[in-house]
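Sequence design from tokenized structure. All designs in this work follow the same two-part layout: the structure record, then the generated sequence. An example of the structure record is given first.
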């Protein structure tokens, strides 16, 4: 029997999951890595530590599964997106810590690049607003700090990669990225699916340091060392991997991952849809020599972290698992609305001046009403993103597939279904990010024959259906939007 191993290199930890031919989890191992904060707003990771942890995770997962390299059909990779690594081509040694996607040191550079046009200057080519989020400005910042580093980069002696590229390099010696990760650099043209010369010029990034862009599902090379001969056969950014693992293969298919924040993606098919409603246009995946498939993405900054704040900041609950029982002890939020704009609002507003507010308080309100309002806050934020997607793509969300830690809250998923007026479906296998990387790798090596077979493997665990009246839904949405307006212009 053969297996697929998926490496999931995330913001706080790395893990490896071994899957069998039915897409079931056989073994797991996970390791956390340090979060490095040199200055306020700066966030870094040690790429060498990440690589060491990934190797350990793969070794331990294989030991737990009782398998060797000879039992692996392929390895797939999914990763934190936008995080930027530069290293020496000859030695493989990083020249700086990785600059993490959350890092905001490029804020002045981003404002300078926007000029009179502002955030949308490059959206028509890249699908992205100008933001500190993306990799291109991070590369530019690193090169601007050291003229000798820039000279070496222009000579091809220094290589750039997002985390997928860093791992592929260490596993196979190949300098490769996939289309989903490339689409998050602000250097790739969405239409040509190649590095854009005008973007390289605008951001002053040498092409010689960039990896080759390949499909998300393809054999990039074979592993060296202990995994000798095992093909590395996929790479997908983490949210795109979750979309793929949820078998969202048709235009209109949508998923939302609920973690610290929430990320909703809508498959829009073979043509990129440029957003006019505050969303990001991104590549969803590309299989072998097939055309790229695109998606609209809405990023929500605060979801699960609001529950953590109620637990750690206010002491309303002692454990996150207490939320459902407390929130379910009341029929509604008692008119209380929480807008968790702790550091601004992301999609579809993109308002860095927003701050969190709690409105609608009366003497009647209790901690149970606050707990219920917190769950509703996540659901209403997802509703706003879904509305923006429908406006941009003309594709209403007729069903939402969900994953992530917050999906343990059955009350949240019922509220989500109610406010979306659409079924919400939780799958049997909730590790959809790793599963998506495994699926894409398996397709590349013939472990699974086609997308239809993957869709057949996907199974629902439970479906929640809307039960809220139209009147209550629209009244609640109006109240939410009024509360959002109160959160603006604070910073």
């Amino acid at each position: 029997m053969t297996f697929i191993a998926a490496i999931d290199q995330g913001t706080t930890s790395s893990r490896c999951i071994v899957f069998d031919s039915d897409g079931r989890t056989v073994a797991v191992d996970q390791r956390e890595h340090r979060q490095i904060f040199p200055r306020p707003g700066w966030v870094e990771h040690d790429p060498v530590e990440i690589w060491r942890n990934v190797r350990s995770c793969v070794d331990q997962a294989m030991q737990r599964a009782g398998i060797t390299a000879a039992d692996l059909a392929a390895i797939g990779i999914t990763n934190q997106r936008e995080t930027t690594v530069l290293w020496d081509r000859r030695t493989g040694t990083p020249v700086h810590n990785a600059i993490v996607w959350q890092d905001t040191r490029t804020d002045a550079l981003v404002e300078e690049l926007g000029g009179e046009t502002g955030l949308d200057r490059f959206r028509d080519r890249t699908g992205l607003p100008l933001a500190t989020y993306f990799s291109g400005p991070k590369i530019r910042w690193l090169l601007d700090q050291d003229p000798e580093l820039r000279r070496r980069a222009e000579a091809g002696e220094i290589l750039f990669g997002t985390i997928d590229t860093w791992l592929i390099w260490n596993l196979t010696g190949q300098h490769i990225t996939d289309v989903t990760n490339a689409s998050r650099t602000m250097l790739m043209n969405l239409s040509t699916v190649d590095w854009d010369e005008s973007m390289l010029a605008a951001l002053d990034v040498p092409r010689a340091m960039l990896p080759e862009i390949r499909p998300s599902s393809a054999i990039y090379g074979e592993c060296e060392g202990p995994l000798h001969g095992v093909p590395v056969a996929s790479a997908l950014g983490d949210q795109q991997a979750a979309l793929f693992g949820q078998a969202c293969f048709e235009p209109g298919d949508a998923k939302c991952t609920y973690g610290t924040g929430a990320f909703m993606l809508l498959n829009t098919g073979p043509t990129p849809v440029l957003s006019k409603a505050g969303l990001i246009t991104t590549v969803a995946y590309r299989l072998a020599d097939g055309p790229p498939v695109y998606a609209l993405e809405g990023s929500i900054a605060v979801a699960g972290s609001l529950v953590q704040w109620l637990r750690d900041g206010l002491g309303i609950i002692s454990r996150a698992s207490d939320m459902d029982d407390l929130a379910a002890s009341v029929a509604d939020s008692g008119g209380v609305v929480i807008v968790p704009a702790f550091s601004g609002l992301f999609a579809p507003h993109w308002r860095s001046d927003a701050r969190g507010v709690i409105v609608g308080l009366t003497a009647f309100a209790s901690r149970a009403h606050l707990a219920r309002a917190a769950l509703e806050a996540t659901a209403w934020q997802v509703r706003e993103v879904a509305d923006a997607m429908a406006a941009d793509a003309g594709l209403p969300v007729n069903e939402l597939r969900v994953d992530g830690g917050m999906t343990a809250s059955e009350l949240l998923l019922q509220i989500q279904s109610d406010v979306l007026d659409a079924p919400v479906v939780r799958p049997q296998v909730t590790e959809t990010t790793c599963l998506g990387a495994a699926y894409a790798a398996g397709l590349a090596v013939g472990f699974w024959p086609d997308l239809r077979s993957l869709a057949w493997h996907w199974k629902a665990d439970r479906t929640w259906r809307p039960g809220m009246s139209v009147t209550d839904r629209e009244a609640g949405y109006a109240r939410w939007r009024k509360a959002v307006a109160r959160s603006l212009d604070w910073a």
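The first strand starts at residue 3 and ends at 9. We note this feature because it recurs in several other targets discussed in the main text.
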